[in-house]
Amino acid sequence: xxxxxxxxxxxxxxxxxxITPSQxxxxxxxxxxxxxxxxxxxxxxxxxxxxxxNGKQILKSVSGRLRSGELTAIMGPSGAGKSTLLNILxxxxxxxxxxxxxxxxxxxxxxxxxxxxxYIMQDNQLHANxxxxxxxxxASNLKLGKDMSSKQKEEVVGEILDTLGLHEHRNTxxxxxSGGQKKRLSIALELVNNPPIxxxxxxxxxxxxxxxxxxxxxxxxxxxxxxxxxxxxHQPSARLFEMFDHLxxxxxGQCVYQGSTQQLVPFLSTLGLVCPSYHNPASFVIxxxxxxxxxxxxxxxxxxxxxxxAGNEISNPGDGDVIKFIDSGVNLYQPYASKELKDESNxxxxxxxxxxxxxxxxxxxxxxxxxxxxxxxxTGFIASPRHYPTSxxxxxxxxxxxxxxxxRRDWTLMYLRLFAHILVGLLIGALYYDxxxxxxxxxxxxxxxxxxxxxxxxxxxxxxxxxxxxxxxNLMQQFNIQSYYLAITLSDIPFQAVFCVIYVSIVxxxxxxxxxLFRFSMFLGACLLIxxxxxxxxxxVGAAMxxxxxxxxxxxxxxxxxxxxxxxxxxxxxxxxxxxxxxSPMTTLEELDMVxxxxxxxxxxxxxxxxxxxxxxxxxLRWKLLSTR
Length: 629
Ligand SMILES: Nc1ncnc2c1ncn2[C@@H]1O[C@H](COP(=O)(O)OP(=O)(O)OP(=O)(O)O)[C@@H](O)[C@H]1O
Prior knowledge:
By secondary structure, this protein is α/β, with parallel strands linked by helices. It has two domains: about 1-350 and about 360-385, 3-Layer(aba) Sandwich (Rossmann fold); about 390-565 and about 600-625, no CATH class. The chain has 20 helices and 15 strands. The protein has helices spanning about 80-90, 110-115, 130-145, 150-165, 180-190, 210-225, 240, 265-270, 280-290, 295-305, 350-355, 380-385, 390-410, 410-430, 440-475, 480-510, 515-545, 545-565, 585-590, 600-625, and strands at about 1-10, 15-20, 40-45, 55-65, 70-75, 95-105, 105, 115-120, 195-200, 230, 245-250, 255-260, 315, 320-325, 340. It has a six-stranded mixed β-sheet, sandwiched between helices. It has a four-stranded antiparallel β-sheet with strand order 4-3-6-7, with helices on one face. A three-stranded mixed β-sheet has the order 2-1-15. The protein starts with a strand and ends with a helix. The relative contact order is 0.10. The structure holds adenosine-5'-triphosphate. Adenosine-5'-triphosphate binds next to strand 4 and helix 1. It is found in: Membrane. GO terms for molecular function: ABC-type transporter activity; ATP binding; ATP hydrolysis activity. Belongs to the ABC transporter superfamily. ABCG family. Eye pigment precursor importer (TC 3.A.1.204) subfamily. It is a multi-pass membrane protein.
């Protein structure tokens, strides 16, 4: 049981609010992990700006330690370098950085670290077109090895959904969830394999005060379970601020404070920066960092050894005295407003008793955050060369099934595309109706073939650019890239093939082309190949660039295909009314310089182009994935 004193200005008194946690829930089914401490020292991050010789230094030699069992907030004014520090600590950014990062005292191995941690970004993309339960099933199949039965996986999922209050929304589409529920689902998806380190970029952004409280309560309970929870946060209310165990404050790329949240105010007061009564200490430290109380950044930074863990002897730059600032162990200062709320905007008795902290244990047997060992590095979980304990083939099947479900439910991908193929088929069929029976309509036949090619190329190319980009960022980070690519490149082929068959059947018969199976098959085969090659162009463009550039560049890339399609021969000068120049089909072929054309060669060329483009798309995708780090 926990109690708070809530100031009540209207009545001039104080109301005692008691938080009574409901039956604490524990995640007993999760895989066991050991706690992890992160240390970093002398971290600098520099970016090059244009042709300037010296780059711009964003982080200036910051150091610190982030402990398991603690909820750490990285705070600071806008542009202070919070996201940059988070990106470096997560391993999301590696180039341009110097300094050392250690895990339980050992130098960080990035690929191992990525397996231990998760990074929930602000706009974390959820699996579109999936329900909460389906998204969780994908995550559990991917992250929990085949040693676990489906029933056990369901138990894990059920327990997480229950604990995070998502059980009643299990059949809701992820896109229909509220902002707070989406955040909780992002956490739930990551919790499946129980990572001991969890990073959050502004987890409370876009949430109302009650949801903010719920969200931070959840993070706090995750930390209480022995995890290392780190999040950036802009300016929490006093109520939220109190929930953090540890604070790391940045200003102009330097650490101006690190230590417990309770010791922030005493620390600042040693510099003559006295936080006014009833003032939110979180707001105060931001104001100090912004220079509203004079130039204190250098002083604070020096006092913190620019991030060398407070808790050691630190000299006060003001008078040379040595003060003891204890980060852990004996506390020399009275904790600031230990349970007294200075910001009552969010504090209603009702609200507080509704929102309870539910301890979510890292593991039942390894709860003690002090019990930090390097044994973690020896566990099977870490030793695995893969990101998750599922084979590449299993990952391929998971992505394939998920992508097929995605396509089936995607209105643009499925129904709009089907509608477009039928409508355009009927339109072209009506325009070139019965031309196949009329020898005088050779030119119309050529026009028909050309538009056929144009339509098939553009539809399959643009839809692939749009849908590929849409899907890629959702899942690319989570899967083995080969399995992922193979699944998404194969998944759309059947759909495109079916649409192409429907379209070709309509136009072939409406334009009265020869009703011979062989000719129909040849025509269909050529159309299918054109669609698949165009789809591959879409994949290359989608993998290499963003939607805006892709939508512009894809038509440009298709120009060579059109130029060399053989249709661009001028017939304008031919006086058709004088005599029938195209009486013999051979004349047409002669005019188009296609007498010696070998269809086998064309087919081989298209197949080669198809494979070259598919491989190029993979190379671009890989490059893009690596270059974002
Ligand atoms: N690639 C880059 N090139 C130039 N400057 C950069 C680059 N990346 C970051 N910066 C600068 O580094 C500083 C820190 O950026 P960062 O995004 O880490 O700040 P922040 O504290 O997270 O800010 P906010 O709270 O507004 O999100 C900013 O001044 C930003 O303009």
